[in-house]
């Protein structure tokens, strides 16, 4: 199948100043002696993997990229520089406590134009209880610092369903987040993964009912304030949807480099090793999945239905030579009648209610 060239690049920096109790990402405590060889190895990988230097989106995530010392942070930015000639959206993930004026200036002068901040909760007691080392005041200061230095495209992340967060506290969280006027807000429902402190402490994830009510509350408030619910867990002011993340949901290919990073190139989805020693030695044993036509079709359904761009039936027919509407007419019509899906301009678009039961809908659409 003829493919577009790869237009998005994800770079993983696995270091954090401290480890949060719920975290299941590929991350390690920051030590300079590990970060130095890591950046060297990352540069080598980047040069081999990312053959198209003219990518449109770059996302540097983690871990906490801003946990690097200033000289190493600059080294990272300089390593990425050759890939920024055509970049439209260039995001760095930051934690409020490690975002200094110096780092903001370095990012600004190297073309970074979007920042994603892990806020998670705006209640200082809750933050402390999950081993986050910032306060809501740090978040306010970080946002001010960014805006004063010319980076005003900001995403703030919240976690829904943390222990001891009542509905009233959730409303307060949203109100606090809105007071900072970000362009983009992500809200993820807590999942409790094995090997996390939450798991060991037998913390339970929110029930489906709780998660549904929390998303509904968030959606109500954010909609009233002009945000568009464009993906299951993401809201944006019009025009500020994350182009990088839309690459994933459009089922398009992207480069992924760094410890534990995932990528999708040449019909193959892969995940890098999560073993730092092996990665540093250059033994990047990847898990790979060759995406055949059938898998591609399933990914297309599963990912496209996450956003309000929806699943384009004309495109689907061109790609797979299949009339999905004809094949799944009964299911589609039934979800349209129940208000879970819309059928507009030959596209299937999930409503809020549809996004809340997406797994079920997807199963009904896959043979
Ligand atoms: S800062 Fe982010 S990546 Fe690091 S431990 Fe906390 S949640 Fe995980």
Number of helices: 16
The domain tally reads 2
Helix content: 40-55%
Q: Could you give a short account of the major beta sheet?
A: 9 strands, mixed
Please give the CATH architecture of the largest domain: Alpha-Beta Horseshoe
- CATH superfamily assignment of the largest domain? tm_1862 like domain
Alpha-carbon distance between the two ends:
21 Å
Mean pLDDT, all residues: 96
CATH topology name of the largest domain: pyruvate-formate lyase- activating enzyme
DSSP summary, beta strand count: 17
Structure overview:
Helix 1 (32-49) runs parallel beside helix 2 (70-80). The protein is α/β, with parallel strands linked by helices. The chain has helices at 32-49, 70-80, 101-109, 124-129, 136-148, 167-179, 197-200, 208-224, 243-249, 276-281, 293-304, 313-320, 324-327, 329-337, 352-356, 358-365; strands at 8-13, 15-16, 28-29, 57-62, 89-94, 114-120, 154-160, 184-189, 228-231, 234-236, 255-257, 262-265, 268-271, 287-290, 311-312, 341-344, 347-350. It has 2 domains: 8-249, tm_1862 like domain (pyruvate-formate lyase- activating enzyme); 293-367, Arc Repressor Mutant, subunit A. A hairpin with a 2-residue loop joins strand 9 and strand 10 (234-236). The strands form 4 sheets. It has a 9-stranded mixed beta sheet with strand order 9-10-8-7-6-5-4-1-11, sandwiched between helices. Strands 12-13-14 form a 3-stranded antiparallel beta sheet, with no helix packed on it. The chain contains 16 helices and 17 strands.
């Amino acid at each position: 199948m003829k493919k577009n060239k790869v237009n998005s690049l994800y770079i993983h920096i696995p270091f954090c100043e401290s480890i949060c109790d719920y975290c299941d990402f590929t991350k390690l405590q920051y030590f300079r002696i590990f970060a130095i060889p890591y950046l060297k190895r990352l540069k080598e990988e980047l040069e081999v993997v990312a053959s198209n230097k003219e990518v449109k989106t770059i996302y540097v995530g983690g871990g906490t990229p801003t946990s690097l010392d200033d000289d190493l942070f600059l080294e990272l930015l300089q390593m990425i520089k050759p890939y920024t000639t055509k970049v439209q959206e260039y995001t760095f993930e930051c934690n409020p406590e490690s975002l200094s004026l110096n780092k903001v200036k370095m990012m600004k002068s190297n073309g970074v134009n979007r920042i994603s901040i892990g806020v998670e909760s705006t209640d200082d007691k809750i933050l402390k209880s999950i081993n986050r080392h910032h306060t809501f005041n740090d978040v306010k200061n970080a946002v001010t610092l960014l805006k004063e230095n010319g980076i005003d495209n900001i995403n703030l992340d919240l976690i829904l369903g943390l222990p001891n967060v009542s509905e009233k506290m959730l409303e307060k969280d949203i109100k606090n987040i809105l007071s900072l006027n970000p362009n983009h807000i992500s809200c993820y429902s807590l999942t409790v993964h094995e090997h996390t402190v939450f798991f060991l402490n037998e913390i339970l994830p929110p029930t489906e009912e709780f998660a549904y009510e929390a998303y509904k509350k968030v959606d109500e408030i954010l909609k009233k304030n002009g945000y568009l619910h464009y993906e299951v867990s993401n809201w944006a002011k019009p025009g500020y949807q994350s182009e990088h993340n839309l690459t994933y949901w459009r089922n398009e290919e992207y480069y992924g480099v760094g410890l534990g990073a995932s990528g999708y190139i040449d019909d193959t989805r892969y995940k890098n090793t999560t073993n730092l020693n092996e990665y540093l030695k250059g033994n990047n044993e990847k898990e790979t999945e060759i995406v055949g036509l059938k898998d591609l079709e399933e990914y297309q359904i599963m990912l496209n239905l996450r956003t309000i761009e929806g699943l384009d039936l004309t495109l689907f027919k061109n790609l797979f030579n299949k009339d999905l509407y004809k094949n799944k007419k009964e299911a589609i019509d039934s979800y349209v009648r129940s208000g879970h899906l819309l059928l507009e301009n030959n596209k299937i678009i999930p409503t809020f209610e549809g996004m809340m039961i997406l797994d079920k809908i997807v199963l009904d659409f896959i043979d």
